Amino acid sequence: MGFWDYLSSRHQQLLTDAFQHASAVFQCMVIATVLGILIGVVSYRSGWGSGLAITTTSTILTIPSLAMIGLLIPLVGLGVAPTVVTLTLYGLLPIVRNSIVGLRGVDPALVDAAKGIGMSRAARMLRVELPLAWPPILTGIRVSTQMLMGIAAIAAYASGPGLGNEIFRGIASLGSANALNEVLAGTLGIVVLALLFDAAYVLIGRLTIPRGIRV
Amino acid sequence: MSERSEHERSEHERSAYERSGYGRGEHERIAEERTEHERAEAAPAPSGASASGASIQLENLTKRYAGNPDPSVDNVNMEIKAGETVIFVGPSGCGKSTTLKMINRLIEPTSGRIRINDEDVTDIDPVKLRRKVGYAIQSSGLFPHMTVAENIALVPKMVGWSKSKVKDRVEEMLDLVGLDPREFHGRYPRQLSGGQQQRVGVARALAADPPVLLMDEPFGAVDPITRDHLQDELIRLQHELHKTIVFVTHDFDEAIKLGDRIAVLRERSHIAQFDTPEAILTNPADDFVSGFVGAGAALKRLNLTRVRDVEMAEFPTVTVDDPLQSIFNKLRSGPHNELLMLDRRNRPYKWLRRGDLMRAKGSLARAGQMVHDTVTRDATLHDALEAVLIDSGGRVAVTGRRGEYIGVVDMETLMNSVHELLEADRLAAIEHQHDLAELRHHQTEQELEGGAEKP
């Protein structure tokens, strides 16, 4: 069976997998973004705090993803839970690092001005610092998403959702008629999803970065 | 402030703005602005309705930083009157900026009190305090991700003004700083020139009508010509608004131009001299101050006096409609070698010398020399001197607000009045010094007595 025939005969299953893959990545990205920005906001002012945050998140990233999921199974069981935990943890580093860099890059004179005209600490953060740091943070989110797209495939190892199932099935039955097609379909599916997400980020950037600071 | 008077004020400003008009030369606009001063002075001050200035008292204000044995600001005592423009001037690192930032507690004082309108603000919520104190900084401090209108609306929104009131206020503030609201409303700061940004910065600082305005080297980052314009604008604004302005600069000329009083600060914000520009120029308290005043104190003094304050020279005038014979007679009878011809609207038109008349032969249409440059009564003596020096005849005509002839200033008038001014300053300064010495003497006496009483 050729690749196109394979696609047309299995498109129902493939679409479901692709949708679950995208949905898992998207949901984990939302959690990672919220957590990552929070960690950045809390830690960017102190040297050791931000050092700790960056070191911790980058240490997490050095753990092989297969090992991470393997280690999590005894703790949280099979299925969705280890997938979400793994993806969220992996997604943190670029967001945390870019949040810290972005917030530190805000012109101190502007923060001074915001203070001087009587903005409270929270108002300063929400209305001045975060909007100005948003472009680098968005870049971090984008990098993170690309990374998670690939890593999410490993989730299938713990019976997680997504296109990883295709790839694992193919690898498990190497030599059989559809093995190559399965691996290829899973991989290409992830690449297509990644490109679609990237396009979405360009659009989000256009919509959310204020015109005054758009490059 | 009542709603009505607020409305009246904005009406006044708007119409003033329309009169000043766009699309005309900067010179014309400035001339027009100057006549604006005259009007404001003549009419009962319309800005009485606005929240005008509040007094500020600094008592033993001190700032120490950890790890530094010497305080950065050491025991500053100062009284700033309501509606006064006070300039802190001093070398960089003297603590003038730190002192300023302690007034709105961007830097918390280590000890000492700050009182605004006799209210102790040293311990109130700093956020609340800062909403009542306008703050403008170098390179404007505008938020680049907000439009001009959003920037200006920030403080009024924070203090809870209604939407429509904020909207009107934004337009009014743009008017006030000389920017067309329709054009600049939706622009982002990066689409403005440095001078325009600075204007918006001042508009933002004044938007919620604070009684006090703090300015931290606001014009430090713009080119000299723009700076000059911005300074003129600030003088005009202050004329209308009567805020209490505390202004930090390291440029002594700027201090002279803008300040009602100048505090010359040396290291650790010690006040070397706190006095009117005139007094500092003519009678610097010590070598430090005179070093800071720099050379050319007499020339700088010219900036402080307006043409209206000096006696103008007698000068014969004729009008274009006068018959030739009467013009001849006038020139022959007087001691002057030339006379000034006015046009039908009483504006200076031509300088006519004896020789011009001799050559004229019946018609004056081509005779004489056109009047190129005039000064208004609000021009400084410095401007007048400049005009006199450039003029080939060594004199310049002074005009009123509609360009009508008022008088003539020449080299002799200028020299006489400068001599008189300097002499008067010197006398005033000596008197002042005498008073001070007496006061000090009195104080030491009291201290001695106090000390004697203690065991």
From TrEMBL, chain A:
The chain crosses the membrane at residues 24-44, 51-73, 79-96, 147-163, 183-204. Residues 18-201 form the ABC transmembrane type-1 domain. It holds the Pfam family BPD_transp_1. It is found in: Cell membrane; Membrane. Keywords: Membrane, Transmembrane, Transmembrane helix, Transport. It is a multi-pass membrane protein. Belongs to the binding-protein-dependent transport system permease family. This is ABC transporter permease. It comes from Streptomyces xanthochromogenes.
